[in-house]
Write a structure and sequence with these properties.
The chain has about 190 residues and is α+β, with helices and mostly antiparallel strands. The chain has one domain: Protein Transport Mog1p, Chain A (3-Layer(aba) Sandwich). It contains five helices and eight strands. It has helices spanning about 1-25, 65-70, 75-80, 110-120, 170-189, and strands spanning about 50, 60, 85-95, 100-110, 130, 135-140, 145-155, 155-165. Strands 1, 2, 3, 4, 5, 6, 7 and 8 form an eight-stranded antiparallel sheet that branches. Strand 3 (about 85-95) and strand 4 form a beta hairpin. The longest helix is centred in the N-terminal third of the chain and has 23 residues, at about 1-25. The chain is elongated, with a radius of gyration of 24 Å. The N and C termini lie far apart (about 60 Å).
């Protein structure tokens, strides 16, 4: 009799475990892992700008070594603040009839603290900048001689966009803002 009770108990316990596991399974939806490349504007998202597809136009950094390949002299500050992975994408367009290249760089710093600390690191923070309303915190680097640069952080991500401004300051800033808004929108889902 005690043998039947133990068998019955085992069957009941196993049934309970099976039902618990089965009921906890996701019902048809798949989970996705978000990576920095998911936030890049797609071809046609920004009118008049083409997403580069040639050699060197798209670079991924999935580890520290590949980050050095993208930004040799600046990789250490990203690594110090928790770098996990990143992507750099070039976009091509015209401003006032002159061909231009916009560089977009996005990194996953592991968590919002890593992105915050990177954004505020003396190596990253420009000496002359104005705050901008992108992500958790954004700014326009006004101290570069030939370029404008917008950078911002949102959650664990850090974003930097760079574009030549020579003789076309207003137009270059407008293009950077279009791209920054598109990236931010992609990040917010």
């Amino acid at each position: 009799m005690s043998r039947i009770n133990i068998s019955t108990i085992i069957i009941i316990v196993m049934s309970f475990i099976f039902l618990t596991i089965y009921s906890c399974e996701d019902s048809g939806s798949s989970s996705t892992i978000t990576v920095p490349a998911d936030f890049l504007p797609k071809q046609g998202d920004i009118e008049g700008w083409t997403k580069g597809s040639g050699t060197g136009d798209y670079l991924e950094a999935s580890n520290q070594s590949s980050l050095y390949d993208i930004i040799d002299g600046g990789a250490e500050v990203y690594i110090t603040h928790g770098f996990l992975e990143g992507v750099q994408q070039l976009y091509y367009g015209d401003i006032l009839g002159a061909g231009q290249t916009l560089t977009l760089f996005i990194t996953d710093q592991g968590d919002s603290t890593g992105a915050y600390n990177l954004f505020h690191d003396a190596f990253i923070t420009p000496t002359s900048h104005s705050p901008l309303d992108y992500g958790d915190e954004g700014r326009l680097n006004e101290g570069l001689l030939f370029d404008y640069e917008i950078d911002f952080r949102l959650d664990e991500y850090y974003v930097r966009l760079t574009l030549n401004k020579e003789g076309m300051e207003t137009e270059a800033l407008q293009v950077l803002q279009l791209f920054a808004s598109a990236v931010e929108s992609n990040m917010e889902g």
